């Protein structure tokens, strides 16, 4: 399964959500589908997309927050799963695209490569109430639909190929994206 296919399948569902992505390939794939003001592409701060998602979810309990993350990023901030589980925001869906690789910086192997580290098991052990491990596009769609229907903190680990876009470049720098994202949230209600 490819991450780009998963993001494409989610794209309509993301319309009214607050969406935070990691940098690099994941951000580019979402951006290439068409930027929306409710998308925030976290640059530089590897590992902290889920922490920003948690802050948003706790402060905006009536908004659905979706975090698009990577295995390397989650491994860099592994405590995030325990913090999510402790505060348990029902409006947060944390999707981890596990390609076993630090793809955006050259494709180095991560700890999940060859099944060494099981992020879904870690999420369960951390106490996340709804965890799904998906390896096919069908499973991913089922798990996402289920997570969007629930009113419960969800982590979906999607095992994807270590492939990304053939180009990088977004006409939206971090400060502008941040200002516009903040404005979107303020104007929402
Ligand atoms: C603290 C920190 N270390 C390293 C980097 C450089 N860096 C940017 S993206 C990335 C890889 C991210 O890997 P992953 O989360 O698995 O996503 P993928 O690129 O595979 O989609 C790295 C190492 C960074 N931005 N910040």
Keyphrases for this structure?
Rossmann fold; binds thiamine diphosphate; two-stranded antiparallel sheet; 189 residues; alpha/beta; 42% helix; single chain; 6-stranded parallel β-sheet
Task: Please tell me about this protein's structure.
With 189 residues, this protein is α/β, with parallel strands linked by helices. It has one domain (3-188): Thiamin diphosphate (ThDP)-binding fold, Pyr/PP domains (Rossmann fold). The chain is 42% helix and 19% strand. The chain is built from eight helices and eight strands. The strands form two sheets. The protein has a six-stranded parallel β-sheet, sandwiched between helices. Strand 5 and strand 6 form a beta hairpin. Helix 1 crosses helix 2. The longest helix has 15 residues, at 174-188. The radius of gyration is 15 Å and the shape is globular. The model has no long low-confidence stretch (mean pLDDT 97). The protein binds thiamine diphosphate.
């Amino acid at each position: 399964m490819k991450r780009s296919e998963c993001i494409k399948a989610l794209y309509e569902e993301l319309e009214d959500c607050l969406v935070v992505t990691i940098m690099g390939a994941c951000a580019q794939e979402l951006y290439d589908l068409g930027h929306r003001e409710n998308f925030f592409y976290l640059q530089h701060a590897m590992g902290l997309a889920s922490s920003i998602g948690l802050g948003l979810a706790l402060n905006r309990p009536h908004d659905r927050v979706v975090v698009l993350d990577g295995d390397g990023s989650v491994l860099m901030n592994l405590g995030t799963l325990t913090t999510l589980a402790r505060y348990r925001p029902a409006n947060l869906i944390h999707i981890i695209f596990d390609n076993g690789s630090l793809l955006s910086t050259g494709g180095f192997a991560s700890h999940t490569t060859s099944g060494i580290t099981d992020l879904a098991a870690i999420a369960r052990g951390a106490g996340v109430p709804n965890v799904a491990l998906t390896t096919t596009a069908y499973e991913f769609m089922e798990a996402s639909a289920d997570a969007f229907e629930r009113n419960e903190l969800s982590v979906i680990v999607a095992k994807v190929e270590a492939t990304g876009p053939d180009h990088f470049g977004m006409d939206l720098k971090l400060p502008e994206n941040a200002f516009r994202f903040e404005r979107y949230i303020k104007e929402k209600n």
